[in-house]
Every structure is written in C-alpha cells, then in structure tokens.
Automatic annotation (TrEMBL):
GO terms for molecular function: tRNA (5-carboxymethoxyuridine(34)-5-O)-methyltransferase activity. Catalyzes the methylation of 5-carboxymethoxyuridine (cmo5U) to form 5-methoxycarbonylmethoxyuridine (mcmo5U) at position 34 in tRNAs. It is an enzyme of class 2 (transferase). CDD domains: AdoMet_MTases (cd02440). Belongs to the class I-like SAM-binding methyltransferase superfamily. CmoM family. This is tRNA 5-carboxymethoxyuridine methyltransferase. Its EC number is 2.1.1.-. It catalyses: 5-carboxymethoxyuridine(34) in tRNA + S-adenosyl-L-methionine = 5-methoxycarbonylmethoxyuridine(34) in tRNA + S-adenosyl-L-homocysteine. S-adenosyl-L-methionine binds at residues 30, 55-56, 76, 117. One of its GO terms (biological process) is methylation.
C-alpha cells in the first residue's frame, strides 16, 4: 500500500489482512477473476515479462507471475506484509522486493506490465499515483489497475438499508482499518486515463454478483458456477458497473 501523507499501511495488521482478504471467497474470487482477465488481454504464457506489482502486499499476484516465469518487482510500504511475502515466495532470482511507496520508485526503469490492484482506495491522492504508474510502463506495455468501486459501495449500502450512512457521504467517525477509506468512481478513473498516453483495452467488474447474494452460503456451495457467471457477465453492460471492484487494463502508446 502507498504512504503519501495519510495513505494506509497495514503494518501491525498484516496477518489479519491476509486472513480477511484471502481466507474467504471474496478474496479468492477477486484474485481468480483478475487473473482470468489478465490472461484474456495479455500474452502471459509467452515471452517472460518484466512485471511491477505496485502495492502488491503479501505477493499473491507476484506469486502467480513468478510461477509463469516472469521477472517481478514487488513493492509495498508495509514491512509487515512484505515479511509475509518473503515467507510465501522464498528466495527467487526472478523476484526483487522493494520496501517503498509507488511515487518513490525509480523513473529509470520501465516495465512490460505494471499491476496495481486494490491500492487506489487507500490513497489520499490517487491521481498522482496513476500518472506515475503510466510513466513506469514501457511503450506498448500494459497497466492493470483495479480498485474498490465507490458506486458499488453506495449501491450495496442502499440494499443493506444503511440509509443514514449513505446520506452522510459514506463516511464514519469510527475508523475501520481494513475498510477502504477512498473508494474510486470508475468513470472518473477512466476519464483520467484517457488524458494520458494509454488506451483502455479492458473494463470489467470484479464480484458483480457475489456480494449481493441473498443466500450467502451459495458463495461457497456453488462457487464454480458463480465464478463462471461472473466471467460471463462481468465485462458487459450494465453489470460491470456493479462490481465491488473495478478493473481497467490499458496499453501504453508505442
């Protein structure tokens, strides 16, 4: 995670973060859908790529990239989550772990693929980081950007009857450390990317249906069918705008 001014770090919360996110169908489905869309847009099975996993936390996406034979730089501001990543990934000549924020990454190096998933919603000033991420992509390379969806958060809270919370602008005096503090609006992020030297080639909602099920037990008992339908409809209107997370894959101008 990033650390500009009041950006969120998960030091002292790393184990809880790992368990809450990836110890549930929410985390599993989010990761598997992201991987599906990356494979759908980028030739991950061909030549080894130079990959930056920016704000990559405990290295879940980095592990997948390394297993495919790619060279990965994993960066994060939390030393605790990077400690978990080191235990998970071990020593690997294709892995470079950097304890730093995104804005401090060197401009002297660019990457074939920059992945920045579930980071923007923890930042005070995400637009500055987006510009930096684009700068770090090689000409013709790709940026994969996913973030907590403000519009889906509002929709979900209305469904749950949290009317006062919505009327207060979805802000609370009680700070929950694992609750994203700055959800982003997909169309705002898309608009910003359109002003930069990249072309958006993929838009998808992540968990368009999972979180809204009236029978939550089906998240587990019928997981594979649910995942199939998420893939089938997650890139289509109007469902993509309902995803709890939103994914954008963009290609940098050559």
């Amino acid at each position: 995670m990033e650390n500009n001014n009041q950006d969120q770090s998960f030091d002292k919360f790393a184990d809880k973060f790992e368990k809450n996110i990836y110890g549930s169908t929410k985390g599993r489905l989010r990761h598997e859908l992201l991987v599906h869309h990356l494979h759908d847009c980028i030739s991950l099975q061909t030549l080894p790529l130079d990959v930056l996993d920016a704000g990559g936390g405990t290295g879940v996406m980095s592990e997948m990239m390394i297993n495919l034979g790619h060279k990965v730089t994993l960066s994060d501001i939390s030393s605790d989550v990077l400690s978990l990543a080191k235990k998970k990934l071990g020593e690997n000549i294709n892995l470079d772990i950097q304890h730093r924020d995104i804005l401090s990454l060197s401009n002297n190096r660019q990457y074939d693929l920059v992945v920045c998933h579930a980071v923007l919603e923890w930042l005070q000033h995400p637009s500055e980081v987006i510009r930096k991420l684009v700068d770090l992509v090689k000409p013709g390379g790709h940026l994969s950007l996913s973030f907590f969806n403000h519009d889906a958060q509002l929709f979900g809270n209305m469904l749950y009857g949290n009317f006062d919370y919505v009327e207060q602008g979805m802000t609370s005096k009680n700070i929950v450390r694992l609750s994203p503090k700055n959800p982003q609006k997909p169309k705002v992020i898309i608009s910003q990317l359109e002003s930069l030297p990249v072309k958006v080639i993929k838009q998808a909602g992540i968990r368009c249906f999972h979180d809204y099920l009236k029978q939550p037990e089906k998240q587990i008992s019928e997981y594979e069918q649910l995942k199939h339908l998420e893939i089938q409809y997650g890139s289509s209107e109007p469902y993509l705008w309902l995803g709890k997370y939103f994914l954008i894959i963009a290609q940098k101008d050559s």
